[in-house]
Predict the structure.
Amino acid sequence: MKKKLAITLVILALIFLCAGYDVYRSKQFHLTLVSMDPGQAPADGQTPVSLVIKLTDSKGSPVEGHSLFAVPKGGGILSASRVVTDRAGQATYTYYPFKASKLQPVKDVVLQIVDESNSIFIEVNTKTSVTIPLVEPENDAKSKHSLNDIFGE
């Protein structure tokens, strides 16, 4: 019985050490927004928003070769969800907003970004979120065609 308890305690201690190391390692990296162009995008389903995210270590030096994973919360899509940082520690995302409608009114979208490369044992990652402000599109481009024009009578 004492042997099982000792083995269990050793295993738990190893798990806590691994988790502690991942928590420590995640605090050694920082994700920041470098630029967002345009600053406000119309919710027209077409206008792309370019976001540049920078990954630095605890000394402020850029980190190359880390895989960043991003997910837009609230609608829209990214041209690529995973982007690898370059020599400057930067990753560029292109976000395409949703098309605003009565069912989905205009609202800001939050882009959640995770550094997938820094966790070793149990997925404790460096994270950040960026709010992308969306505005009403200036003109609502509606088609002048009807279903009869497309399919015939």
Q: What stands out?
A: The longest helix spans residues 2-26. The longest strand covers residues 29-37. Residues 62 and 89 are 4 Å apart (CA to CA). The mean pLDDT is 86.
